[in-house]
Amino acid sequence: MKNLFKKNSLLKIFLCVVIAGTSFSCTDDSPVEPQKESENVIYYFTGFKNPVTNEYEAHFCKMNEDGSNRVSITQLSSVANEAQYSSNMKRLIIGGYSVMDIDGKNKTYLIGGHAEQSYQEISPNGDRFFQMYHGRCDIFDAVDNWKKREIFREGYASGAKWSYDSRRIIYYNLGNIISRNADSSDDRVVIYQYDTTQMTGYAGNVYPSPYEDKIFFERQAVGKNIRELCVMNGDGSDLRVIHVYSIENGFRGFADWAPDGKSVIFEKSIDKYFTSIMLLKLDGSATTLPPKRYINRSSRFSHNGTKILYQLYIPDASGSNKGRFVLQLSDLYGTNEKILTPEGYDDASPGWASR
User: Please, is 228 exposed, middle or buried when counting C-beta atoms within 10 Å of its C-beta (0-12, 13-18, 19+)?
Assistant: First the structure.
C-alpha cells in the first residue's frame, strides 16, 4: 500500500509505541495506559509514517469495536492488502507469503508458493489453506509444517473456497460448480451443472457458508444482462433463486455470511462511480445501504450479526489520489456510521473476533 498521508498530518502524529503489544496514539498527548478490551475485538493491518524515523511502518493490530485501544500485535515488512482470517480467528495468511497465529506468534514464511499470481484461501478451522495457480491447487497443512502438496490440476478452475467443515474445496469451472475432497484427488463431484442446451445458468462467484453446509452463488439468467443470486445445499440440492438483477447495477462479489446463516452482505454496483453494500436475506428480502464512492471489498458481519465493518477509501480534498484507507462501522442498515481509523493512518483487511 502506498503512503497516502498529507504532509501536514504528520505534524499531528505522535507515535507512542514501536514495540508489539503496546498501544498507538495519534495525538500530541503523552502515552496512556491501554484501555479495557471490549467484547468484540477487531483485527486489522495499519500503515503510517513514523515521525521519529521518517520511515513507513506496517503493523498487524487489534482494537475495540469503537476504535479505541489500538494495540500493535506485531510489526510487518509491508502492509497486507490481502490478508485472510480463518472463521474461528485462529490463524491468518498474509498475502500468500506467510501464515501466523492470531496473536502474532508462530509466523511461517511459505516455500514454493505463487503468492503474486495465485489465489489463496484459509480454511474455517485455520489448520490449512490452498493456493490456486493457473488451474493447479496446492494444499498447505499445519500438521505438515505448512509444506506444499499438490491436490489437483484442472484448467479453468476459478473462485475456489473452503466448505464449512474445512474438508472440501468448492469452485466453479466453465459454468459448473465442483466440490473436491481436499485429501483425495479422486473425490470430485459436480454439484451444479449449467444448461448447455439453453446456454443459461452459467455459474460463478461461489461463496460457501463457513457455518453450515450451504452455498451462495451467482449465475447467468435468461436475458443478456440478467443475473441471479442463488443458495443451495452443499450437495447441490434445494437450489433457490433469491435475487435477480442487471449487471449494470448488481452484484460485485466479496460476499460474507451472517453468523446465523440467514443473510449475506456483498458489494453492489450503483453506477460507474458508486458502490454500496447490500444486505440480502435468504428469504429474498434485501436492503441496500447508502452508497459510497470507494468501498473496497472488505465487508464483514460482526460476530453477533448486528453490525457491518468495511474498508473505505477517502480521497484528499484535492482529489489527487493521495487519500487514505479507513475502516468504517455501521449497523445493518447503514446508520450510526463511524470511522474507526485515526487521521494519519491507513487501515486494511479487517476481521472480527468475539471475546
Answer: buried
